[in-house]
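Researcher: Let's try something more involved. This one mixes different molecule types, so please make sure each is placed in the same coordinate frame as the others.
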Amino acid sequence: MKAIIFDLDGTLIDSAPDIHAAVNKTLAETGDGELDLDTVRDFIGNGVHVLIERVIAARGLSADRHPAMLESFLKHYEADPATLTTLFPGVQDCVESLHDEGFALGLCTNKPEGPSRAILQAFGLDKYFGAVVGGDTVGTKKPDPAPLLAVKDKLGARVAVYIGDSEIDGECAQRAGMKFALFTEGYRHKGLHEIPHEARFDDFDVLSAIAGRLAEENR
Ligand SMILES: O=C(O)COP(=O)(O)O
Ligand SMILES: [Mg+2]
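Model: All components are placed in one shared frame. Result:
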C-alpha cells in the first residue's frame, strides 16, 4: 500500500483567517489590542503553543499569560475553525483522484487533532483520510519525525510521500526518510532552496502526477 500524507495549514487549507480571528478574540477578552492577518499568518507552523508565544511577544505581554491565553485561543478556534477557511484551488479534486487511484491518504499537522478533524469534516474530506495525527496526538510535533511515521504506520503503508508547505515539513520528511513535495503557495518562512524537497508545485492540478512519480521512485 502506498500513501500520500498531507500537511494541513498552508497546504490543503488557507486557515490563517480563522486563526487570526481566534487570536484577536483572545486578545480582545483582556483588552490587549489586535494583530493583523499577515502577522498572525507568519506565526503559523509550529503548533498552537508556539503561536501563542509569538502572540505574547508581538503584543509585549507577560509570558505568565500563556496558559490562560492558550485556553482562550483554543476555545474560540474550536468553536469556529472553518468559517473563514478555504481549500486551496484544486485540493478537492486532487484528494478525490488520489483516493480513486488507490493511494491511502493521511494527515500530519501541528494543529491539534480535534480542530483538524473538524475542518476535514467541514469540507467533506474526512472520508478520504485513513489516519490523522495532530500536534497533540503522539507527544511530539514536527519537525520531529515521529508524528509523520505514526501516520504511515496507522495507514499500514509500505511507501509514503509527504506533501507540505514549510521548512518544518521538509525537515520532518527528511528525518523520516520520506520523499517530500513542497507546495510553494503556503506559509513557508524560508526560501525554496533552503527547504529540502524532491519536487515542488504551485497548483494542485499537477500534484497527483508528482505524488505518483515520487511514490514509484520510493519503491
Ligand atoms: O498549527 C500550526 O502551527 C501548523 O499547522 P500545519 O502543521 O498543518 O502547517
Ligand atoms: Mg503547513
